Amino acid sequence: MEKSPEAYRTIREVADSLDLPQHVLRFWETRFPQIRPLKRAGGRRYYRPDDIERLRLIKRLLYEEGYTIKGVQKLFKEQGVQALSAAALSPMEPSAEPALAIEPEARSEPGPAAREIRSGIADEELAALRDALAELMEAERILAQARAPAS
């Protein structure tokens, strides 16, 4: 049975529809306060249609437009979620921090080894590396929280 467009979705349904791992959605919840799924008994998440649209927008900005998480946060802060959601239907020009910002001293041409490594990374491998990085960053945040003195 097909759900109506207004129905709430589980994290699994959202992850499947966006073609993202569930842990990435949980990580994005920690970085974007605009994403607030309902949490029911046992911590089960239910995403509203607005949350799903925001997640779709975040995915587009990160993976297709080349923004970093900080860049997307800056866009949300400066332009607001509604303005960005309305603009999502048209191509966007990156105006915040690009994902591949290079320090001036690191702008030299990559050597042959670096070019060989870069050319050997498939899109799927790159996505897996990004997922692993997101997991590591989340683990680092949890560790920092655990190490912080209790107030």
Overview of the structural elements:
This protein has two domains: 1-101, Multidrug-efflux Transporter Regulator, Chain: A, Domain 2 (Orthogonal Bundle), CATH 1.10.1660.10; 102-151. It has seven helices and three strands; from the N terminus they run βααββααααα. The chain has helices spanning 11-18, 22-31, 49-64, 69-79, 81-87, 112-119, 123-147, and strands spanning 9-10, 38-39, 45-47. Strand 2 and strand 3 (45-47) form a beta hairpin. Helix 4 (69-79) crosses helix 5 (81-87). Residues 92-108 have low confidence and may be disordered.
Instruction: Write out the strand line-up for the largest beta sheet, numbering strands in chain order.
Output: 1-3-2
Strand content: under 5%
* Overall geometry: globular
Describe the largest sheet.
3 strands, antiparallel
The total tally of domains equals 2
Work out the radius of gyration. 18 Å
How many strand units? 3
CATH topology of the largest domain: Multidrug-efflux Transporter Regulator, Chain: A, Domain 2
- Percent of residues in helical segments? 55-70%
* CATH class wording of the largest domain: Mainly Alpha
Structural class: mainly alpha
- The helix tally amounts to 7
At CATH level 2, the architecture of the largest domain is Orthogonal Bundle
Output mean pLDDT: 76
- The poorly predicted ranges are 92-108
- Please provide the ordered H/E string of secondary-structure elements: EHHEEHHHHH
Describe how the helices and strands are arranged.
Layout (H helix, E strand, L loop, with lengths): L8 E2 H8 L3 H10 L6 E2 L5 E3 L1 H16 L4 H11 L1 H7 L24 H8 L3 H25 L4
Antiparallel strand pairs: 1-3, 2-3
